[in-house]
Amino acid sequence: MRAAAAAGRAAARARRHAGAIAAVLAFVIAAAPGVAESTTPSARDAGTAASPLEPAQRDALQRWLRDRAAEASLPPGARIEVELGAADPRLRLARCARIEPHLPASSRPWGRTRVALRCSEGPVAWQISLPATVRMLAAAPVLREPLPAGSTITPAHLAQAEVDWADAREAPLADASALHGRRLARPLAAGAALRPADLQARRWFDAGARVRIDAVGAGWRVSGSGS
Length: 227
Known about the structure:
This protein is of the alpha+beta class and 227 residues long. The chain has helices at 2-30, 41-46, 55-70, and strands at 48-49, 79-84, 93-94, 98-102, 111-121, 127-143, 158-164, 211-217, 220-226.
């Protein structure tokens, strides 16, 4: 009798331990980092999607980003291309009938940026952000060949080509004649557009040259010369 009772108590303890382990495993799986899954019945009934955007919604978001980029000062003949990135594949978001986009305060409407998406009409409210690349393509002078730092730019070095004006913070220099005689501050590859940071500061005279300085004001003038 005593042996049977002891065996029964041991079996009960084993069942309790197994139940506790199963509960811990279930919690760890549900709380795995990077997985956002709605747990409300309405969201489960509506279904979940790895991507929050249907094809028509992606098209609408691309048009919205093109409109935002078009509000900037565009070079003549520019065309805008929008490439949307994908949401984190670990996300599981409730499907949404109406998604409202907006740009975060730190994001620009061109170049490599991010756009925030907010579900305003769905079983569960959610908000995420997507990466996006907005290109502003227009003609600008580019280098025909690679040049090292210190090279003096001549008309033979330049050609016109379509480049992405939004690829850097500074816009390309559009006037080829203003580039003639300028020196490169860093090496550039063939096909590179030239931006202000790529050029050395202008030197209006060489070291040791004789110069004359005239200071003129209301009713007075002071002149001097030196080297």
